[in-house]
Amino acid sequence: MESDGMVPPMKGTSAASCPPGSSPFSGVQLQDSAADAPGSPSKRSAALDLTDAVISLQTDPKRRDAPSIVLPHQNAEFISHIAIDIGGSLIKLVYFSPEDTQAEGWENGKTRNQAGGKIHFVKFETQRIDDCIDFIEAKGLHRTHNGKGEPDGRVRIVATGGGAFKYADKFEERLGVLLEKEDEMDCLVSGSNFLLKAIRHEAFMYENSQTIFAPSNTDQDLYPYLLVNIGSGVSMLKVDGDGQYERVSGSSLGGGTFWGLCRLLTKCRSFDEMLELSSRGDNSKVDMLVGDIYGDRDYSAIGLSASTIASSFGKVVAENKDLEDYDPADIAVALTRMVSYNISHLAYLNAKAYGIQRVFFGGFYIRGHPYTMETISYAIRFWSKGSMSAKFLRHEGFLGAVGAFLKVHPMTPPNQASTGSREPRKVRANFVERFSMGAPYSGGEIHGPAFSDVAEKVDWVERFVRLGTQATEAARSERDRAQAGMGLSRDSSGSDFLAPESPSPSSSPMPRMNLHLGVLHYTPSREPFPLLADAVHYTPDTLDIWGDRAEMDYWLGVLLDQVGTVVEKAAACDGQPDGRRRAAAFGRALEAHLVKMRSEPGAYGQLGLSDLLEMREDCLREFRFTDVYRLDKARENAAALEVLPDLLTELDGMAPAPRLTALIEGCLAANIFDWGAKACVDLYHNGTILEIYREARTKLSRRPWRVDTFDALAANWFGASSSDTLGESSAVPRSPFRRVIMFVDNAGADIVLGMIPFARELLRMGAEVVMCANSQPAINDITAPELRALLNQVAAVCPVIKARLYVCGNGQGSPCLDLRRVPEALADATVGTDLVVVEGMGRAIHTNYRSKFKCASLKLAMIKNQHLAERLFGGNVYDCVCLYEPPANT
C-alpha cells in the first residue's frame, strides 16, 4: 500500500466516472494524517506472495547453485511443492525455503517483520541423480514444516523432463514422494514466456564480444518466436502466445553429443571444463577447410572463403596421427563448432519456414559461455544474410523448472490478469532488478552460502573484496598477455563461413559470463504511469550511457569520487558501535560494483544513469544505512520553516503576474540544495542554506534561463483570469488546472521555500494538489512520511495547506524517477490530472527531460553538474531549466 489514508475523488469525479481500469485514488489528505494505517502486503493462499521478491546470488564452491528468488512476505505454509526438471544430461531443481526477512516499510513510517522465503535454483548432472536426492533429503525439502520449523508432512514434487518418468520409482523409494509429471514442452514455454515478460533485460544478443540487450515491450515485439532449447538433444518450438506453441523440429545432435564426444576424446569430465577448454583451441588443426582443398585459396565461384569448414574433423583422415597427438583444446573447439553450427542452421531453416524473425536459444549447453554464444550468433547471422540475430536468455537452463513451479503457484499479482495474458511492459512494472553483494563475491564468481547477517557480510568484505578485485585485474592482464603472445587472430583460428565483409567469431580465450548478478524485486501493486504519452517506448534516462562508453566512464568516475563523502556521512549519522565498520564495508562493496561495471558492463544488464544512482542507495540499505542524511534533512527543514512565514507574506503582497515569477524563481533557487552534487556540497561547507538561497534568488532574477518557456506557462496560468484581476495587488486568479501532481525533490529549502509555496498558490486558486515524494530515502530527498510531518508543521502557520493537498509515495528509493513502475495509489491519482510538475535535477534532467505526457507538464531544475550542463544544453553549472509543455499529441 503506497499511502496511508483514503482521499476523496477529484471534484466532479466519482468512481463510476473513472476511466476503465482506474479508480479514485488513495492518497493522504493532510488533515486525515492522524488516521494513518500501516500498509500490509497482499496475501493470497492460491498464489505466491511476491511482494518485494528478490533474486539472491547464492552458489556453493562447486558452482552447483544458481541464484535464489527471495520472497520476504511469503508465509511458508503457502508453499507446498518443489519443482524439478530431469533432462538427459542435467537435473534442474527449484525449491522453496522459509526465511525471516525484515523489510522496511518506509512509506508508511513503519517497520514490518514477516516470515518469507526463497526460491532456489540448483543443478546436478543426471548421472549423479543420487546426489540430487541426497541434497533434497539433507535439506528436508521433501517435508513441509510448521511454524516452529518442525516437519509435518510430505511436499509435492512437480517434475518435468523425460527423467520424470525414468526416475519416478527412485524418488518414491528414497523419499517416499510421488513425482507429479508436467508436460516438458509446456513447462519450457511457460517458463520462457514468464521470464521474457517479467525481466526487462532477460534476452540479449552476443556478437563480436559485445552484449546487446533486446527487451520486448509489447506482445507484438515478443510473439511469435522460435525457442531453441539445447539440452542433451534439441527441441525447437514455435511460440505464438501464452499457452500457444508447437514443437516444429528437433535434433539428436545437442549438448549431450558435445559432452559425450568431448569426454571420449579429451578425457574431460566436467561440462564447464570442456567449454573452457574449447575456448583455447584452434579448429583448423582438425577440421578440413576449403583452403586445405584449394591450396589456401577461396572457392570464389560459389562464395566460399578459404577458412570455411568443408568437413568437421576431416583433416584427421589425411594425417597419420593418433588421438594423443592432437591438442584436446583443438578437438574441443572443433566439436563446439560442429554442434553449434548444425543446431544454428536447423534453427534458421525452421525460422525461415515459419516466417519468424525472433530466435531464442536456451538450455544448459550455452551456460553463458561467450565462445558458444559467439559461434551460434555468427552462424545465425551468416545463414540469414544478416536478417536475423540469435538471442540468449539470462536464466537459460531453468526454463522448464520455472514453468513446472508456475503450474502449481502462478506468479500472478492479486486482482490482476494472469502474467501470460498481460503485455510485457505491464508485467515488468511489478519487477525491478537490484544488485547486492548477496553472497561472498570474488573475481567475478559467487562462492559459498549467503551471509547470515550484516556483521558476517562486513567481515567478509573487509577480508576479501579488495583481494578479489586485485585477483580479477591480475587474471585479466595475464589473459591479455597470453592472447598477445599466441598471436591469435580471427583468420588464423580457422574461422568458418568467412566472407570478406563478415568477420568470424573470435577463438580467443574468454571467461564465462556472469549474467545472474541481479536481485529481482517484485511488487504487485505497480503499473506504468498512466499519463505517459508513450508508455510503450518510454525510457526514463535522458543520457544513453550504455551506448556511450565515455559517458558511462564519466558517471562511474563521479560515483567513485563520491564514495568517500558518502562513507563519512554514513559513519557519522549511524551512532551504532559497528557503524564505521559497516560504512567502510559499504564503500568497498560499492567500489567493487562500480569497478566491475566499468570492466564488464553487460554483467549487470543494460543499466542507465538512474540505475547507477539507485545502486548506491541500495548498497547503503544493504549495509543497514537506511537514511544517512536524516539529521541534515531535519536541520534544514527547521531552518527553512523559520523564514517561511515572512516569504509567504511577501508573496501574498504581490500582484498575480510578479507573484508567479517569484514562485518559479523560488523553486529554481531552492533546488540548489543537493547533497548528491559535488558543487552543492562545496557550497554547504561555505555558507548557510539561507545565504545560499538568497544569493541564488538574486541571480535568477535575470532571465532568460538556460531553458525558458516561462511565458507559455504564464499565458496558460492567467488565461482564465481577467486583466483587471491580474493588476490587483494580492488578487488570486482562477486556476486553469483542476488537479496537479508534483514530483518533489529535496528536503529543506527546496521543499519548504520552493515547492510548498508553489503548491499553496495552486490551492488558493482552487486546484487540488498531489505531492509525490520518495517512498524510501535517497541522499537528502524528502520521503513521503517526512513530507506529511512537515506539512503538518506548515499547516500550523498557514491554514491554506489544510485544503485539497494530498501526499503520495512515488514508489522510488532513488534520486531519479522511473515512471515505468509507480504505485497503484499514484496511478489512481492521475484521474482528472491536467498538470504534472517534475522538479529536481535527478527527476527532471537525469530522467524524464524528454518525456512527454498526456496532460500539460512543467519541469523545473537547477543544473548542478558542469559536464551535464555542457552535454545537454551547452551551458554551465547552476544554469536553470523551466520547461512548460502542453499535452502531447497522442
From TrEMBL:
Keywords: ATP-binding, Coenzyme A biosynthesis, Cytoplasm, Hydrolase, Kinase, Manganese, Metal-binding, Nickel, Nucleotide-binding, Transferase
GO cellular component: a single term: nucleus
GO-annotated biological processes: coenzyme A biosynthetic process
Family annotation (InterPro entries): ARMT-1-like_metal-bd_sf, ARMT1-like_metal-bd, At2g17340_3_helix_bundle, ATPase_NBD, Type_II_PanK
GO molecular function: ATP binding; hydrolase activity; metal ion binding; pantothenate kinase activity
Cellular location(s): Cytoplasm
Residue span, Damage-control phosphatase ARMT1-like metal-binding domain: 609-872
UniProt keyword ATP-binding present: yes
The EC number(s) this enzyme carries: 2.7.1.33
Residue ranges, compositional bias (Polar residues): 23-32
Superkingdom of source: Eukaryota
Pathway note: Cofactor biosynthesis; coenzyme A biosynthesis; CoA from (R)-pantothenate: step 1/5
Main location: cytoplasm
Disordered: region residues: 1-45, 472-512
Cofactor: Ni(2+); Mn(2+)
Family note: Belongs to the type II pantothenate kinase family.
Protein name: pantothenate kinase
